Amino acid sequence: MLSAQLGEIIKWRRKELGITQPHLAELAGISTNTLYKLERGQSNPSLEVLNKLTEVLGMEIKMEVIKKF
Fold it and tell me: What is the rounded radius of gyration, in angstroms, for the C-alpha atoms of the chain?
């Protein structure tokens, strides 16, 4: 998944829950700047950061293997 798409999904869910960027960053234990860059597709989050955000947002990370023949 591209960084921009990931950022859009996080931003969409945050807004759906009515949470501000500073509040989400605080709840997830990350910096506001990190969240700002992530939502704009300007950074690639670590798995740790992504896990913290998805936990707060009530989401899950799912990885699938797609076989191509």
Answer: 12
